[in-house]
Amino acid sequence: MTNRPAEVWKFRPHPLLANSHLQTLMGIYWPRKVAPYTAKQRKVLLDDGDFIVLHEDSPVDADETTPSVLLVHGLAGSYQSTYMTRMAEKLVAQGYRAFRADMRGCGAGEGLAKSPVHCGLYSDIASAVREIGELYSESPVSLVGFSLGGTIVLNMLAEAGEMRIGNLEKSLVVCPPIDLFSCERHFCTLLGRRYDKFFVKQIWNQVVNRWQRFPDISPQAIPKRPRKLRDIDEIVIAPSGGFTSAAHYYRETQPGPKLAAIRQPVTIVFSKDDPVVPCGPLFDYPHSESVETILTTHGGHLAFLGVRKFMGANGIDQDFRWLDWRILEWLEHPHERQSMQDLPEEAEELRLSR
Q1: Sign of the alpha-carbon dihedral angle for 316, 318, 319, 321
Q2: b/e per residue, 232-243, with b = 16+ CB within 10 A?
Q3: Which of 107, 141, 145, 224 could bond 102 through an S-S bridge, CB–CB 3.0 to 4.6 Å?
């Protein structure tokens, strides 16, 4: 199977934020005014009795046919993550109904699930999509997954094959882990350890909180915080998900080997310099014709901070948050793409070796 050639969306980071680590950090901590929370919370019952939570924001003139967008956060994220709140606000302003999903034990979902979220829980997202379809039967649904949320979306699409899930029409995923073994190796590198340490702290707090809320699943003595994310996968995620080990969990839930099985349209957006999730493995596996891959030279992890509206600079982007307006553009014009011929130099840089 021959993969469709990767396309390029033109992105130029501001010169002061060209470094991928700065991009990633400022993507999280760049200050902004957050609108008051006005969402309607909806609990979604899952097959095993756990719940996830959807936060629904709608335009004032929304009706049964208003298109819906489901946003799925990444590892250690929630409905309050900066990319989730920004996109919800911008989607509503453009006339979309926005749903922010809190996965198991995350955000408003804390205390509503005994099992932790992991890459193999694609049925949770399918349940959320179906819930939206039951609420608004005439509303077309688009799905946007960030990082780990994108991995879950890809697994869901591979499992579904040609079977339509609710009113889902198309999906877009940003910086999703494609090969979990590659991610583990990256977190063992000098630069990767800082991110591994960050995730360990966040995830371990969730684990301990869950054990405190549900003593029946808690060990008799809570162990010290592990040093690596793989350790949490080994002692918590794998056994709770029915896997024999972290390696078994990675092997069964990484989406790379399943990309050829996807039969519904999905766009994968990746930055070549992503310091958290390696981009290279995306091209180590065959894709189906339904998989579109988009690359940029820069952008960090879920950041993509451009030049417009930054210190008075005259930029080329419609929004300082380049990713946000690109997602909106994808929703409005899914088939209009920047061609490789338009950017010969950047395209040349993006020809990754296998």
Answers
A1: negative
A2: bbbebbbebbeb
A3: 107
Alpha-carbon span 184 to 352, nearest angstrom? 21
Give the pLDDT of residue 222: 85
Please give the Cα distance from 64 to 153 (Å, whole number): 25
- The amino acid present at 50, given as its one-letter code, is D
The pair of three-digit structure tokens given for residue 226, joined into one six-digit string: 């592990």
What helix, strand, coil percent values describe the chain, rounded to 5? 40, 15, 45
**What does the alpha-carbon distance between residue 46 and residue 128 come to, in Å, rounded to a whole number?**
9
Q: Coil, strand, or helix at residue 293?
A: strand
293 close to 189: Cβ distance less than 8 angstroms: no
Q: Answer for the pair 7, 338: CB distance below 8 angstroms, yes or no.
A: yes
Pick from 284, 292, 293: nearest CA to 264: 292
Q: What is the 3 state secondary structure string of 38-64?
A: CCEEEEEECCCCCEEEEEEECCCCCCC
C-alpha 268/C-alpha 118 separation (Å) is 20
Residue segments in the chain with a per-residue pLDDT below the cut of 70: 1-2, 308-317, 334-354
Please give the full DSSP string across 82-142, using - where no structure is assigned.
HHHHHHHHHHHHTT-EEEEEE-TTSGGGTTS-SSPP-TT-HHHHHHHHHHHHHH-TT--EE
* Tens-digit pLDDT profile for residues 195-250: 999 999 999 999 999 999 999 999 988 889 999 999 999 999 999 999 999 999 99
Quickly count: other Cβ atoms within 10 Å of residue 80's Cβ: 16
User: Could you give the CA distance from residue 199 to residue 193 in angstroms, rounded to a whole number?
Assistant: 10
Rg (CA), the chain: 19
CA distance linking residue 46 with residue 78, whole number of Å: 18
**Bridge partners for 173 per DSSP:** 145, 268
The pLDDT value recorded for residue 14 is: 84
